[in-house]
Amino acid sequence: MNNPWERALAQLQRAAETLSLTAALHKRLQETDRMIEVSVPVEMDSGETKVFRGYRVQHNNLCGPYKGGLRYHPQVDLDEAKALAFWMTMKNAVVDVPFGGGKGGVAVDPKTLSEKELERLTREFTRKLAPVIGAHLDVPAPDVNTNSTIMNWIADEYGLQVGERVPGVVTGKPVREGGSEGRTEATGLGGAYTLLALLPQITKKTPSELTVAVQGFGNVGSHVARFLIDWGFKVVALSDSRGGVYIPGGITDIDAIERCKEEKGKLAGCYCVGSVCDVSNREVLNGRDLSSTDILELPVDIIVPAALENAITADNASRIKAKIVLEMANGPTTLEADTILAQNGVTVIPDILANAGGVAVSYFEWLQNERHEAWNKDDVFEKLKDKMEKAANAVYTSSTSRGITLRQAAYVVALERLLEAFSKKI
Ligand code: NAD
After folding, report:
1. Which CATH number fits the domain that encloses residue 347?
2. Does 205 qualify as catalytic in the annotation?
3. Residue 338: what pLDDT?
4. Distance 258 CA to ligand 1 centre (A)
5. Active-site residue, from 82, 103, 323, 387
């Protein structure tokens, strides 16, 4: 079952049975409230016009305005956006922020566009979405291949459409444009807080005794790796879509790796000794090259899928040696793989909990915009820690009291909150 939307429905079904969910809410969550598919014509630098497909799915708004990222990737389609929007409904309920679930994006490989083309695409997509988004209606955010610059173009274009700047229409903006301190790091940091909160319940080992491999070195993967290294975990492998590096002694200078990736355009070959990163250091470090899929099968304690959906499937699940999976990507594990991991005694910290730090700080950004406030980074991180610890504890308690996996428990916690919101509306 590699279709993300079918998997989302199956996950809902399992949790609904555990909880004896009312048929009315179950049926409502099996459908999306609204699906928008638009054409996005863009004048390329050559003068030629190309037309891309754009999507926004609004899954459910029982708990508040729709909220979720926009992704620019060739694989974006309606089924993917539906599943991701559903997971946002669940995630926002788990982490207890007053938002519903939305998601969308454009089927495009942004790496093939110039900056000006990317801006024209974003502005045209925003014009198409303007009637259905808004600070109290649907609030997009960054996701794969989108960032604060793109969010600011959206805020700017939306303002032009409605006649005034409305910062709360989108989160993940640059700080000087009404973004929140700490939003860039928030998803990675939130995952690291979640891991730390659950660690004593999962293993007797301390961070310095645990090795970690991170698949995906974008916004989420790079920050989770950085915080785990700072807190004493031994991060031994990193990868991006073009491969990666395995350094058994542990990676210490993540800044050097980031600079290397920026220079070379890929992680492969980034063997850093001091600030010098080169493939010639591979032997000194006793390192080896990796493919982006090999990384998940390394003999480590923790793997962190932080790239795309379906990274762990029935094909590779039984080869996974780690005993902890911290799901930072959305939907990285298929249903079949989930069963195999559970049978093999692997603890999966599920996506809707582990990566909820991004939307938690998005909520803080939205709140700051609403109240015309600007919080400092320490304050944001403190609030984020509190949110993640509360969510992790609620999920863990539900898991032990019901004798279910952390994933099932996360859905149960989410559905209990949705049920409460639903009962107030009727
Ligand atoms: P990003 O675009 O910044 O980075 C994605 C990374 O994944 C890149 O390093 C890319 O090279 C790598 N990648 C792509 N395909 C790969 C493959 N097949 N194998 C290995 N690596 C591959 O995106 P991001 O914002 O870091 O998002 C990563 C994941 O986290 C996504 O699943 C996203 O939905 C999820 N997520 C992101 C946020 C957020 O705040 N950005 C919040 C919650 C969840």
Report:
1. 3.40.50.720
2. no
3. 95
4. 15
5. 103
**Cα→Cα distances 375→173, 228, 283, 344, 361, Å:** 14, 25, 46, 44, 11
CATH number at residue 108: 3.40.50.10860
Whether residues 219 and 347 share a domain: the answer is yes
Residues 192, 328 share a domain: yes
Best mutation site among 146, 223, 308, 352 for ligand 1 pocket (most ligand atoms within 8 Å of CB): 308
Task: Determine the pLDDT at residue 425.
Answer: 78
pLDDT in tens, 258-283: 999 999 999 999 999 988 999 999 99
Q: Which residues line ligand 1 (CB under 6 A)?
A: 142-145, 187, 215-221, 239-241, 292, 306-308, 328-330, 355, 358
Q: Tell how far the Cα of 396 is from the centroid of ligand 1, in angstroms.
A: 26
State whether 209 and 246 are in the same domain.
yes
The one-letter amino acid at 271? Y
This prediction has a pTM of 0.95
C-alpha pair distances (Å), 82 with each of 75, 102, 264, 331, 351: 13, 8, 35, 12, 16
